[in-house]
Amino acid sequence: MAPPLPTSLPLEFLERHDLAAPGCPMSSLRSPGDTPFSQMQYLDVLDTLRQAPDGNLAVYIHVPFCHVRCLYCACDTTVTHSLEKVDQYLDALEREMDMVTERIGRRRPIQQLHIGGGTPNHLNEPQLARLMEIVENHFTLTPESCASIECNPRRASVGQLELIHGLGFERVSFGVQDLNTDVQRAIGRVQSLNMVRDVFLTSRQTGFESINLDLVYGLPFQTPRGFQATLDQVLDLGPDRVACFSYAHDPARRPHQHAINTAHLPTPAEKLALFHRAVRTFTEAGYRWVGLDLFVLEDDELYEAQTAGRLYRNSLGYTTSADRQVLAFGPSGTAEVADALIRNESDLRVWQMRLNNGQFPVAWGRRLDEADRRRRQAMLHLMCNLQLPASSAADLDHEYEQLCRKAEQGLVEISDEGIRVTPQGRYILHGLCSEQDDLIDSSSQWRFRMSS
Ligand code: SF4
How is the quaternary structure described (predicted)? Predict the structure, then answer.
């Protein structure tokens, strides 16, 4: 049985550890050495996939559009109000799927479909229907397939949610971030509790099997009291899962964040205390803390997998399947197939241009050799399951030295049986991850899958 979580974190611990970390998976990706990936290399990967048996394929689609830009945003997205621009994106997406499925075989069954962004529900209803038609013309969704989508509650309507559910989506995630008005004004995203509640209840009535809400901590004007109110209001709604992401202020890479006044941001220690508050609130309410920053109900398959030591993370997020192959479409989509990590061009125009020229729009990639693959598996196992048997710890390289230093700080325990993350160490899993960038950040759509 896992040791209990600390009821409070010592001030010295709060001051020593900073949770500063990238806020969004897609744009926080650091390429593995920025290694360009050639058309031939990609064809090679697809050929490997063609020969792989059906049964464990997932598809991610990145929709790179939003109605307005939130000031804290770190996602690859473009503000547009042009229907034509979205239609052209759908044309290019269709072309990308044509090219990939010509190589791996058309209408292969997929176990998982995830639509992220940007704001997927920025598309109007005919465009959403067309998006799904494109998927179904190229892949087969079986009764066992799970389809999920990220939605912005400010763009959702009853008709749209009914359409999305009718298109086969069972899981929906909404970005809540924070319900305090001062915080919302400071991040350029005002959405009332009433509106969020309406959208949530409508989704329940519509029949979605799972409704996830996303929060962000470390935002301007967040205080213990204000954030606690948000946590309580979110709990009252009864979401199936809650993700609590760390805001990373990085205006050099995301210039719109200059509009956020750093004087209003919590200090690193205050930020860590906010996260601790979220952990305490959700776990005391019966949710289980999974991986870095996800809270799920006790009967959730992800918690069961973590308890059994078989939780895994791929470029879509947490999964119970360690060998799922993820194909990605759309600008900045990151695929994880045939032991390769491959990222598409993130610029919408470049992505489109490459496709118009008949080229795969891949920007960089890396095919892992056996040693790297085992190291990566071992680190991911530790991050997800909070322990690593000694037999797998032997696969680690320089990471082992880093973990020994963490052991001196009481963040992990190393014994003959293997490595175990301590209750306090759970709070700095972000840090453990970011020190393994060459292996893990490359697939870190998984780090912060922030909803629209
Ligand atoms: S809705 Fe999401 S993706 Fe769009 S700007 Fe806001 S945070 Fe970024």
Answer: Monomer.
Cα gap 233→290, rounded to integer Å: 21
Q: How far is CA 330 from the centre of its chain?
A: 16
Q: What is the pLDDT of residues 148-173, one digit of tens each?
A: 999 999 999 999 999 999 999 999 99
Q: Tokens for 51?
A: 């020969």
Cα distances from 324 to residues 41, 300, 335, in angstroms, run: 20, 19, 11
Question: What is the 452 CA–ligand 1 centroid distance (Å)?
Answer: 5
pLDDT, tens digit (0-9, with 9 covering 90-100), for 290-312: 988 899 999 999 999 999 999 99
Distance (Å, whole) CA 359 – CA 351: 9
Cα–Cα distance between 312 and 357 in angstroms, integer?
Answer: 37
Cβ neighbours of 54 (radius 10 Å): 12
Confidence at 3, pLDDT banded by 50, 70, 90? low
Buried b (16+ CB within 10 A) or exposed e, 130-154: bbbebbeebbebeeebbbbbbbbbb
Lookup result for tokens 């190291």: 375
β-bridge mates for residue 173, sequence order: 150, 212
Pocket test for ligand 1, best of 62, 70, 71, 176 (most atoms within 8 A of CB): 70
Give phi and psi for 448, each to the nearest 5: -140, 95
Distance CA 40, CA 384 (A): 34
C-alpha 282 – ligand 1 centre gap (Å): 25
- In order of 9, 70, 175, 188, 350, the CA distances from 247 in angstroms are 20, 12, 13, 14, 28
| Whole-angstrom distance, CA of residue 192 vs CA of residue 375 | 45
Q: What is the C-alpha separation between 343 and 26, in angstroms, rounded?
A: 9
70 touches ligand 1 (CB under 6 Å): yes
- C-beta 101 within 6 A of ligand 1: no
- For range 32-58, the mean pLDDT: 87
H helix runs in 4-113, sequence order: 11-16, 25-28, 39-51, 83-104
Instruction: Report whether residue 256 contacts ligand 1, using a CB cutoff of 6 Å.
Output: no
**Rounded mean pLDDT, 344-355:** 97
Looking at every residue in the chain, the average pLDDT score rounds to 89
**Coil, strand, or helix at residue 59?**
strand
What pLDDT is recorded for position 438? 53
What single letter denotes the amino acid at residue 179?
Answer: L
Look at residue 25 in the predicted model and tell me its pLDDT: 32
Q: Which two tokens stand for residue 271?
A: 């930020």
The H-assigned helical ranges of 118-216 are 125-138, 158-166, 181-186, 193-206
